[in-house]
Amino acid sequence: MTTKRREYTREFKLEAISLVVDQKRKIVELAESLRIGVSTLDRRVRKYKKEK
Question: Whole-model pTM?
Answer without folding.
Answer: 0.86
